[in-house]
Amino acid sequence: MDPRERTEKFGIDLAADPFVPNDFEVVEHIKGPLLEWNPHRPKIELVLMPGQRKGIMTGAKIQEDLKAFEGLPVNANALDYLLLRLKEAPWVIPHEWRSVEMHKSKHILFWGTLYKFDGSLCVRSLDWNQDARDQVWRSGYCWVENHLNSQYPAAMVRIKAVSY
């Protein structure tokens, strides 16, 4: 069976405390629900702000604009889960995540966990490296004050409104 055809479902615990890399400090961690994960029907959307499609925006402006999205920014627990599962299940990250709007190099930002590193705010990222010798997913980070273009989508999950 082609591993890309697997339909196994996994759970990502967005309510757990985050992993904290050496020399990083957690500033904010937005907790979420247990996220059922199926790479063929991912509940995580890769979102670009209109300004990113046209050019560049600062990460701080993107972070502010994401508040208007009907959902939650995905925290770093999903990043760490995907990287851990990737070792045994290389198909766990959707193939489509390798490019967005014709960009082959991508850095998916997990805005739900904000860190401080080396005195500045940053978010961690899932980076696709398409070097001819080394096509792999890796963990990275991005400074909040950086100017970001369409190679830096935000990982978001839609939350359905609850009616009472």
The biggest beta sheet is recorded as: 4 strands, antiparallel
What's the helix-strand series?
EEEEHEHEHEEEEE
Tell me, rounded to a whole number, the average pLDDT. 86
Q: Tally the beta strands.
A: 11
For the record, the count of structural domains works out to 1
Helix content bin: 10-25%
Structural class: mainly beta
**Count of DSSP-assigned helices:** 3
Give the oligomer, counting copies of the same chain as homo and different chains as hetero: single chain
**Contiguous runs where pLDDT drops below 50 for at least 5 residues:** 1-5
Work out the strand percent: 35-45%
Spatial arrangement of strands, main beta sheet: 2-7-8-9
Shape: globular
Distance between the termini: 45 Å
For the CA atoms, what is the radius of gyration? 15 Å
Q: How would you describe what is shown here?
A:
- Strand 8 and strand 9 form a beta hairpin.
- The N and C termini lie far apart (45 Å).
- This protein has one domain.
- The chain has a four-stranded antiparallel beta sheet with strand order 2-7-8-9, with helices on one face. A three-stranded antiparallel beta sheet has the order 4-11-6, with no helix packed on it.
- The N terminus is likely disordered.
- It is mainly beta.
Summary tags:
164 residues, mainly beta, 4-stranded antiparallel beta sheet, 39% strand, disordered N terminus
